[in-house]
Amino acid sequence: MPALATTHSLNDYLKLPISRYREQLKQGNAKSIEVSYTHRSKPYQYSIQLTKTSCNYGNYRHWWLCPKCSKRVSVLYCAGSYVCRHCIGANYGSQLQQPIDRLFSRLHNIRQRLGWQAGITHGTGERPKGMHYRTYNRLVNEHEQLTAKVWQASLDKLGCTR
Question: Rounded to two decimals, what is the model's pTM?
Answer without folding.
Answer: 0.62
